[in-house]
Amino acid sequence: FNLFPPAPLEQAGAKAVQNLDRRQALTTSAVGLAGLFGFSGQALAFGGKLKSVNSQLAAYGLPQISSVPDGFSPLLELYGTGQNRDTLLVEFLHPSDWIVVKPNNDVNGEDGTIQAGEYAKGDTATFFVWDTGKKKIEDQDKDFFASAIKKAISQKGDNVYQDFKIINTELQQHEAQTYVIVDFKYVLLTGAGFEVERRGVASVTSEGNGVQVLWAATISARFKKTKEQLRVCAESFRVYADGIKVNKIDYNDKDFEVKKPAL
Fold first, then answer.
1. What CA–CA distance (Å, rounded) separates 110 from 263?
2. SS3 145
């Protein structure tokens, strides 16, 4: 199944999750490592090619990606195909060797998020939605962005981090959309009792009924080497709500079936 048929995604529905995992050989190692950095148990796939991504953007009348830096791949994915979430179209660039993880759907609804990463090294870029209503991003202060990113990194609980600090913020305008790029750092508290210093770059915006964050981070020891990659991820982030229509998955449909990856 392809989430992006030649026409806009009007037909995505109950069968949207029948091929959740096309790279099951990678599932065990990638999902386990993904859990350490904030997220686990999701289906794995690889990002689409530029031509395919641009054809889908064009079908929606959205701005196309003009170019992709060497070593990167574009990702365009739907978030919210289940009844329990608003639908968003998420776009960003990521290093081509990163593994992409997407939301799962089961009888309880959609769970998880969109993430790409080189999990063995601690490099990740993760999409997060804060259901706080529409906000005018350019009017928000540093405390607002700190709250948004703290919520993004603490989806497993408030006791997973300490010493969070915003280093810098930068307002960016893309077409009619406003994004704020945020440099930040924090200490990750692992379940094994270790403290891991991490640095990251996030992009924060507000489309539809909430606030959306793409936060890209790594361990501090790798930040000097990877900071430009993380910045490309964050600055390439776009999210669209208006006009993104999809037939929500009907969990009572007799054709609905979830094929979970073999762990």
1. 19
2. helix
Count of positions (residues) in the chain: 263
DSSP-derived pairing of the beta strands 123-130 and 211-219: antiparallel
Q: Which of 93, 81, 99, 88 is nearest to 39 (CA)?
A: 99
Which among 213, 223, 214, 211 is positioned nearest to 186, based on CA atoms?
A: 223
Helix (H, G, I), strand (E, B) or coil at 249: coil
154-158, 186-190, 213-217, 249-253, range with the lowest pLDDT: 249-253
Q: Which of 110, 127, 155 is nearest to 239 (CA)?
A: 127
pTM of the model: 0.80
Tokens of 62: 């959205």
Confidence of residue 246 (pLDDT cuts 50, 70, 90): confident
Neighbours of 79 (CB within 10 A): 22
Q: Facing residues of 179 across strands?
A: 172
Give the containing element (helix H, strand E) for 223. Answer: helix 220-235
d(CA 92, CA 47): 10
